[in-house]
Design a protein that fits this description.
Helix content of chain B: 25-40%
CATH superfamily of chain B: P-loop containing nucleotide triphosphate hydrolases
CATH topology of chain B: Rossmann fold
Strand content of chain B: 25-35%
Largest sheet of chain B: 6 strands, mixed
Number of domains of chain A: 1
Strand order of the largest sheet of chain B: 6-7-8-3-9-10
Number of domains of chain B: 1
Number of strands of chain B: 10
Oligomer: heterodimer
Radius of gyration of chain B: 18 Å
Distance between the termini of chain A: 30 Å
Strand content of chain A: over 45%
CATH architecture of chain B: 3-Layer(aba) Sandwich
Structural class of chain A: mainly beta
Strand order of the largest sheet of chain A: 2-1-5-7-9-12-14-16-18-20
Order of helices and strands of chain B: EEEHEEHEHHHHEHEHEEHH
Number of helices of chain B: 10
CATH class of chain B: Alpha Beta
Number of strands of chain A: 20
Chain lengths: ~300, ~240
Amino acid sequence: MDIIQQELLTQVADLHEVPEGAYNIRANGELAGRNTTANIDIITKEDRSGIDIRIKPGTKSESVHIPVVLSKSGLKESVYNDFFVGEDCDVTIIAGCGIHNSGPDDSAHSGIHRFFVEKNAKVRYVEKHYGSGDGSGERIMNPTTEIHLAEGASLEMETVQIKGIDSTVRTTNAEVAQGASLIIREKIMTHGKQHAETDFKVDMAGADSSVNLISRSVAKGRSSQVFRSRIEGNASCHGHSECDAIIMDEASVSAIPELTANDIDANLIHEAAIGKIAGEQLIKLMTLGLTEKEAEEQIVNGFLK
Amino acid sequence: MLELRNVSFQAENEDNGKEIEILRDISLTIADQFVAVTGPNGSGKSTLAKIVAGILTPTDGQILLDGVDITEKSITERAKMGIGFAFQQPVRFKGITVKDLLSIAAGKDADMSEICSMLSEVGLCARDYVNREINASLSGGELKRIEIAMIMARKSRLAIFDEPEAGIDLWSFQNLIRVFEKMHEETKGTILIISHQERILNIADQIVLLSDGRIEKVGSREEVMPELLGAGRPCRTLAEKM
């Protein structure tokens, strides 16, 4: 693995060396390293590109890293990864994709991740997207996440895209059974002429299910963002979605919530706030000795922390 | 030493678009330890404080700090020259923690023991607050104390407090006054306090009484306090009409 690929790995998975536990590293469309454990198996798919990750019931405090890096300009790929998480597991899954494009052709990665989380299992899923390189070719990522939570299961997803991705459409569909809970925290920053779209669709299928979608984003330059969240309450449930965006320069942000209650005990809430940095926040930090630019950075960094 | 020379400030009345004079020809020298600026609502106290901190630019006049003309200097430059400003209504920030703000104020990455000593001065326990965000989860009183702790951390030679007593009723005045005294011991600078509170005015070496954008009276507390406490002075507008 070369220096560029290692830098990408550090950015997307905080990996400085070979991770502990199970891992599967994909570099430029090829397998660059894999480790399985007694409880976590990784199997290459035969019918298409991708892997199956099978986690035995009752597996606790283990982690799986499945980073992807692309450093070859013009490479376009779709990868299908399926996670089968057994009953009563408590595991952390760290995915992420880094693209370095210094050539004229577009590079694109579409990761299609499906999660089948069995009864009472707990999953923490972290996903980071990062782009670098000064080529004129675009860096494109279109992650699709499909989540099936069985009774009492829970999944907490953190998804971060801070830098360098020119175009992204992030689709997340989830189905939440009785007593199951889903939390998604999304952080996005776009600049230049970048475009980012988020599309959440959650079916609250079981009684006492809950979902919380929290999106914080900053749009700079002439970039644009669209945040769509659709929550359908088909049972007694709690659904909450929140979109909080800072808009700067000539950027544009749309928040489009859709709440549907099909059950008298479905409780659904959406909150959205879009606005520029408050003048008094800048002034406060300037009275502490920061320049206007430093104050702006501090506010944006804190907001996305 | 802070000097204001013929400072005026005009603003546009949003209702009728007419220019209104908020400060009229203020000339003032402030060199004492504790200086209190007081006066009725709308007399121009907060405007005066914001003009000194650089948040508002005077329409006319000059501001000098230790002999240096700072009229054209930005907020940041003035902060670096040693002017600190505690807001009347502290600002909230999503995602920025108490530790972050105190570190910015102190100009270095403050460690736990430093944060602890800064916060304990204002009656807060660092353990409960250090990682709290400066957001809606903090009460007005808590924010106000953190605001004061920030000014202490800056060790400003001119520290301005805009109504520091508002919102900290549960915290004794004695503590607030002790904070001011301790600050002065450390900085040997001037502490300029905008206040209506008699107990704060009582510790001032100099009191500036503003009324309708003008200086009504400046002097020691012995000179100014009797006038303040003696009610029955007719209102200027009414007096002019009669």
